[in-house]
Amino acid sequence: MLSPSPRVFAAAALAALACGVAQSPAAHAQPAKATPDSTARALGHEQRAAALAARAVAANPSVESVKARIGALEQRVRKAGAWLDPQVAVEYSNMPIDAWRPGTHPMAGIQFKLQQTFFFPGKVGLREDVGRGRVRETRAALDEVKLQLSALVKRAYYKLVLVRHLRVVTEQHIKLVDQFTDAVRIKYVVGKAGQQDYLRLKVLAKKLRDDLKNFARDEHALSATIDAALHRPATPIVTPGALAPVAAPKVTAARLAERANQHRPDLRQRSEVSRTRRIAARSAAREGYPDFTAWLGYRLRIESGADSGTDFIGLGISVPIPFWYDRRAGSDRRENEALARAALAGRAAALDRIRGALGRELARWRRAYQKALSYEKSLMPLAHKALDATFASYQVDRADFAALYQAELQLLDFERVIRRARVATWIARTNVEALVGKSL
Questions:
Q1: Based on the structure, what is the number of domains in the chain?
Q2: DSSP labels for 221-257?
Q3: Fewer CB atoms near the end CB (10 Å): N or C, the chain?
């Protein structure tokens, strides 16, 4: 049986190549452009992220823990406003040791006593004010826990969206690389391509398939983070399709820092700590003032011999001498004043950190938005044209394999850059809102 000549085989192979890859290869990896539909889907992403964050705030045990602490501190306020219980005493006194019966001695009698300790004026009110200050501190801490928990869930959600988008892009490029591999294999069979070209594409395809495993790992980790924040078992998380970039606000970091100064719960908590410490300092100074104890006594006497047994009544008051006032109350007052200053200094340092972080996040946000638009509107169309032209030239032996390989890698890189930039804008927005303490 005669085998076809090399010229006939080559012609058939090239015809198959032309028919099999006549469609532009870049068409298999077109990026999802920002359109009105994708903008609507972006709103869907934002709403889904907000819904997950709200569920986390409602269900997370850390929130319930702080709420329980607030309830405990409110009980301390009630306790701080309580006075000491009055005391009642009954005493049978001055009885002879050899005659216990009442009336056997004129000095014997039954003594009734009612006693009450009165706090120095202002002490109870200041104790209650300190307790209320602790409640305000913890409520601000609760708001900070909610804010950071919400930001954690939103960041994890947007990262999950990114991982899924990168996975889709990678799957598209695996198909594209497989198409190139078939084209190179045909050219290799007819002697117009080297084996190294074929092997490089096989390696690239294997690497992309290995990247899919990394994306699966990241998706599982991010889903687990969200499920843990929502205090629920593993639950599928649905994410819509394309995500349009969100533009950065036209405000300066200094202006946002002013908003943070007003709205950030962490700063409010530090202010409340300072305020409570100042109240505690006044309370400590007042605690050093002596309380006084007053009592009323009634002595029931029984007639004994010539003694008519007239009852007696007694009134009394006692006041401690504050000899160590400065060492006790004075030291407590100075300690709380120092802690109040420390809290204010800590607040100023925290505000500086927020101001710096806002500057960094705004810069990243604006650059990510610029990059997303730049790549989407200019670089990506050029990359597609370059790949199409390179592939067309490669089919007719006017471009080498290196040019085709680099064009494919460039397109893949641009696809990933665009999606990372889009998601980076949303993560930056989440970070800025977490720093400011309020939605933009």
A1: 1
A2: HHHHHHHHHTT-S-------S-----PPPS--HHHHH
A3: N
**pTM (two decimals):** 0.83
CATH number at residue 257: 1.20.1600.10
Question: Could you tell me which residue, 67 or 41, shows the higher pLDDT?
Answer: 67
Q: 83-131: per-residue pLDDT in tens?
A: 999 999 998 887 777 777 776 777 788 889 999 999 999 999 999 999 9
Q: Which ranges constitute the DSSP H helices of 240-395?
A: 253-263, 265-287, 325, 331-374, 380-395
Eight-class DSSP state of 304: B
Distances (CA, A) of 189 to 16, 23, 25, 128, 182: 12, 22, 21, 90, 11
The total number of residues written for the chain in this structure: 440
Give the range of the structural domain holding residue 420, as residue numbers without chain letter: 12-84+122-288+341-436
**pLDDT class for 5, splitting at 50, 70, 90?**
very low
Q: Give percent of the chain with pLDDT exceeding 90.
A: 61
Query: Token pair 């706090």 is at which residue?
Result: 119
Q: Which of 357, 364, 363, 360 is nearest to 420 (CA)?
A: 364
Contact between 402 and 342 under an 8 Å Cβ cutoff? The reply is no
Q: Output the CA–CA distances (angstroms, integers) from residue 434 to 152, 248, 267, in the order listed.
A: 9, 15, 12
**Is the Cβ–Cβ distance between 361 and 433 less than 8 Å?**
no
Q: Is residue 400 part of a domain?
A: yes
Q: Is 321 left (phi over 0), alpha (psi -120 to 50) or beta?
A: beta
Residues 6+ apart with CB under 8 A from 250: none
Residue 240: predicted pLDDT: 78
* Backbone region of residue 437 per phi and psi (left: phi > 0; alpha: psi in -120 to 50; beta: other values): left
Residue 10 to residue 273: CA distance in whole angstroms: 84
- Nearest-CA neighbor of 158 among 225, 235, 208? 225
Q: Are 114 and 104 in contact (CB under 8 A)?
A: no
- How far apart are alpha carbons 219 and 239 in whole angstroms? 12
Q: Is 92 left (phi over 0), alpha (psi -120 to 50) or beta?
A: beta
**Does any domain span residue 414?**
yes
Output the six-digit token pair for 357.
Answer: 């972080």
Q: How many CB atoms lie within 10 A of CB 184?
A: 25
pLDDT digits (tens, 9 = 90+) for 123-170: 999 999 999 999 999 999 999 999 999 999 999 999 999 999 999 999
93 occurs within a structural domain: no
In a domain? residue 432: yes
* Separation CA 319–CA 15 (nearest Å): 113
Q: What is the pLDDT of residue 209?
A: 95
